[in-house]
Amino acid sequence: MMKALFTSLGLALIATAGAAQTLPDLQGREITVATENAYPPLQFVGPDGAAIGWEYDAMDEIAKRLNLSVTYGNISWDAMIPAVSEGQFDIGMTGITIREDRMEMVDFSDPYLTSQMLMIVRGDEDRFVDAASFAANPDLLMSAQPGTTPFYVGVYDVLDGDEANPRIVKFETFGAGLAALRTGDVDLALSDSTAAHGYVNTSDGALKIIGEPLGTEDFGFIFPKGSDLVTAINAAIASMEADGTLDALSTKWFFEYGQGE
Length: 261
What we know:
By secondary structure, the chain is an alpha/beta fold. It has helices at 2-8, 54-66, 77-85, 100-103, 131-135, 149-158, 174-183, 193-201, 229-242, 245-256, and strands at residues 29-35, 38-39, 43-45, 51-52, 68-74, 91-92, 106-108, 113-122, 142-144, 168-170, 188-192, 207-210, 216-219, 222-224. The model is unreliable at 1-20 (pLDDT under 50).
């Protein structure tokens, strides 16, 4: 029943083969993990100023199971993949879509979540109801971060495939684009369902989701090419899927967090 509910929200958990295997003991090995802290509910700064979220809980649990010592470091999205690729961090996490072009720079773990791309608009938006009606109105603008999955979905699945289309207003961060949506400077923001539901649920009606999902994407942790951590992390992900830990984390962060706790 819970699986069906996650699937309906585009949060289907991925079962990984070999979940019953014995986990390796990495003997307290120290690793650094790059984070962005701008992607609720996966990772963000909570009301008390502490960095929290699904991925933090997952990585802390992985560290416990593998006997790792984790230090987190904050870095912007556009710098994360290059920094991990160059070995400045051992792992990167911020809801990173597993894509072939990124595999040229970094290695990926097995997927730990699958999410769908959704359209976020202002709560009172009534000029369009889906991707087709947005594309048909040349006066409407979309926010996007260059190089991200929402940018490419906007270009190729919503508009005309022209990456220089002036209807796409580029921002350095998703938060800046969302702020522009709220103030009316743009009319649409795209986000995967994990973040989209988080932003909408905490907007007090200022934002809503419209239309059908525009596709799916798998999330994975990233590593420098050839990292020996990949196999161990995959084994931990598999064990967490097998014993219901991933399911419990998604219940906590996608359904329970912020509900009068």
